[in-house]
Amino acid sequence: MTLATPVAGLVTDVIEFSAVDGPGNRFVVFTQGCNFNCVACHNPYTINPCIDCGLCVDTCPSGALGLDASGHITWDAATCSGSDVCIATCPYDSTPKARAMAVDALLGRIRRAAPFLSGVTVSGGEATQQAGFVRDLFAAVKAELPGLTCFVDSNGAAPVSTWDLLDPVMDAAMIDLKCLDDGIHRRLVQASNAEVLESIRLLAGRGKLHEVRLLLMPGQNDSDDLLARTGAWLASMDPRMRVKVIGFRHHGVRPSAVPLLEPSAEQREHYADVLRRESDFELVVV
Ligand code: SF4
Ligand code: SF4
Description:
Low-confidence stretches: none
CATH architecture of the largest domain: Alpha-Beta Barrel
Oligomer: single chain
Bound molecules: iron/sulfur cluster
Distance between the termini: 38 Å
Structural class: alpha/beta
Largest sheet: 9 strands, mixed
Radius of gyration: 19 Å
Strand content: 15-25%
C-alpha cells in the first residue's frame, strides 16, 4: 500500500524493544493525548497535549526547556537528564517532551531494529486518538517489513469508523476493560464504557482481539459477582479469549490515587480463579 503524504504523530516516547506490549519483542510508540481520565492512570502526563504555558521551563535542572519566539515549548533531548521534574511540575497532565514524529523517521528506526523484532505496537495515551497516523505508520511497516505484526494497545473508546480505518493494516488490538458495570466505569474513568464494550465485541467478531486487560483494584471493581459477570460476557464472544488480569500498582499514579489499595498475589490469583470458573480463558496474571 502506498500513501502519498503520511502524517506525523504527537509522540510521548519510543521504546525500541519491549517484551510487555504484545506478543514477542516489540517496537513501541507511545502517543500523547487520551480521551479518558482514569483515576488509576499510570502515565497521567500522557493525557493532554502541552498548552505551552511555560510553567515547567524554569524548573528544569538541566536547562533543557525553553519557549521559542512563537511561544511554543522547546525541549533539547541532548541536554535533558531525564529527571522528569517537568512532568512533576506540569499542572495539566502533560509533558514538554512530546514531539511530532514523522512516519518516515519512525520507519527508519524500526528498519534498523527489525532483525530483532516481532512487531510494532502503538500505545498511549490513547493510540486511536491519532488513528490517521497509526494507519499510515502501519501501512508503511506492512509495505516494507511485512514480517512484522502491527498491534494497537487501546482503552477501547473508539468508534467503529476508527477500527474500519485501521483494519486493513492492523493485525490485532489489546483492549483495556476498566469495568463491565457502567456506573463504576464512569466513577473510575469519568466516561461511559459503551464504546469500549462495542469495540471488544467488534474486534472479537473480526478475529482482531489479541487480549482484554482487566485492571483490578480492591474494593473498586473486583467483587466476585462483577468478575463472574465480566467473565461470562467475555466468554459469550470467545470462550478461549486471552484475558490479562492486572493488579493495580501505585507506580506512576497521581497523589490522589495513592489511597487506592494494591491487590496481594493471593487476591490476583483469586480473580483468575473466578474468571476460570466462567470459561476456558487463556489467563495471564500480572
Ligand atoms: S526530564 Fe524535564 S526537567 Fe528533567 S532534565 Fe529533562 S526536560 Fe528538564
Ligand atoms: S508541559 Fe505542562 S507545564 Fe510545561 S509548558 Fe506544557 S502545559 Fe505548561
